[in-house]
Design goal:
By secondary structure, the chain is α/β, with parallel strands linked by helices. It has 13 helices and 25 strands.
């Protein structure tokens, strides 16, 4: 295998990762005099803020995904390759990937983060992350498969484990998935499972901090807490999950919760890149960069988005928030600076412009911090929907998401409750094994074969 991309007189920019930052950079280089190569392990851009709605059967995966080749179809000297980065050879200006080698004039690392399990192997093996569309589909399978099993299992202990949902992490993802599952419990499950006692389904939200949404204002944190408590969600603050074994979620205060639905949104860690000096890495494996997004110690390697930690900004000494807006703004600034490098013009220092933060908890419930303005409730919810709808790529995707939202709003229904076996899920494997192990009683299986 090889990249099969011929060199020409243009300088080559290789971008690793098609998330918010990498994609914005690629888009803004459209009118530049560069050959652009985008590399990603998937052949589509995904919209992380709505991944939780995939996991709770609110949206189809295609609604928040957009193929890279569709974005590049009208551009010259733009190439996409589906591959994974293996190593960077900085002295020779080329990278090794899963499909071969490719050289570069400028390399941009925008390969994002992965779920941080804090080196706990038991939690990593048993918990469900919610970082990608594939993760969300696996979680959907597990939840739905466990609901199916709960109405046929033989013991009350097993039933309670199947119905208990434990969410670790009280940031935007944790708050949003907790609210979405609570709405499933109230509106969807009683209709789908009339023989299920939904009062036995408990949703726990575990947060290590002393408040939810620590990145937002105290007012937003308190309103989110109030909304979730009103939705009968058990919230445990200043609590850490220490282990997960034998379907028991164990916490630092000595308590345990029996559950086969452990959802882990307790933090992320940046993907390390083999070939960079150890001195390049800071807290959380983030790559240290200067005000121009240039990796410390290198002249032609840059890093943007979640993987980067920009030095010199006193307002963000540990790097900018690992959210969409910093990545998008860094991608836009870097596109200008790459063009400036070629034309001999001075570079622009990156300055983050905080456009605010928001999180939704459920229908008519959201919180939003927009500068000095703090909103909560219906208006914040409408604002959240508008911002996310505009941010989704593709007119078709915007229409489908809007239609799904309208349908759910008026019918309290979610129409995507299929268990798809092509996606791996712990619950589905357990369900299939349980079917194989069914007790036959007085019936001889050989009689059935006859």
């Amino acid at each position: 295998m090889s990249f099969n991309i011929e060199r020409n007189q243009k300088k080559r920019v290789v971008i690793i990762g098609g998330g918010f930052g990498g994609l914005r950079l690629a888009q803004d280089l459209k009118k530049s005099n560069f050959q652009v190569v985008l590399i990603d392990k998937n052949n589509y851009h995904q919209f992380p803020p709505l991944i939780y709605q995939i996991a709770t059967a609110g949206l189809n995966p295609s609604s928040i995904s957009f193929p890279f080749r569709k974005l590049f179809e009208d551009r010259e000297d733009y190439y996409f390759r589906m591959a994974e980065l293996r190593a960077v050879y900085t002295d020779k200006n080329y990278i090794q990937t899963s499909i071969g080698k490719i050289d570069y004039d400028y390399l941009v690392l925008a390969n994002g983060t992965k779920t941080n399990f804090f080196k706990n192997k038991d939690i990593e093996d048993g918990a469900m992350p919610m970082k990608t569309v594939s993760d969300a589909m696996g979680m959907r399978n597990t939840l739905l498969a466990n609901f199916e099993r709960s109405v046929t299992c033989s013991t009350e202990k097993e039933r309670q484990e199947l119905l208990n949902v434990v969410i670790v992490g009280g940031g935007p993802s944790g708050v949003e998935i907790a609210g979405a599952i609570a709405e499933m419990r109230r509106y969807v499950l009683p209709k789908d499972y009339p023989d299920m006692d939904t009062s036995k389904m408990h949703i726990y939200l575990i947060q290590g901090d002393d408040r939810l949404l620590p990145g937002m204002s105290p007012k937003a944190s308190q309103k989110a807490y109030d909304f979730l408590k009103h939705m009968n969600i058990d919230i445990k603050l200043k609590t850490f999950v220490t282990d997960y074994a034998n379907n028991l979620v164990k916490m630092n205060d000595g308590t345990e919760i029996g559950s086969r639905n452990l959802i882990w949104v307790g933090g992320v860690i940046s993907n390390r890149v083999i070939g960079l000096h150890q001195e390049c890495y800071g807290r959380g494996n983030r790559i240290l960069v200067d005000a121009h997004s240039k990796v410390i110690g290198y002249d032609n390697i840059f890093a943007i988005g979640d993987v980067a930690s920009m030095q010199g900004d006193s307002a963000y000494p540990n790097g900018h928030p690992q959210m969409a807006q910093p990545a998008i703004q860094q991608g836009a600034t870097l596109a200008k600076n790459l063009c400036a490098l070629e034309s001999g013009k001075p570079l622009i220092n990156f300055k983050y412009r905080d456009l605010g933060s928001m999180a939704t908890i459920g229908k008519n419930k959201a919180v939003a911090d927009l500068g000095n303005f703090k909103f909560a409730g219906f208006f914040a919810w409408v604002l959240w929907m508008g911002v996310h709808l505009v941010s989704i790529l593709g007119v078709r995707n915007k229409v489908f998401v809007f239609m799904d939202w309208v349908w759910s709003y008026f019918t309290y229904d979610r129409s995507n409750r299929m268990i798809l076996k092509s996606f791996e899920s712990k619950g589905l494997k357990d369900l299939e094994q349980r079917t194989k192990d069914t007790h036959w009683g007085d019936i001889n299986p050989k009689d059935i074969e006859k």
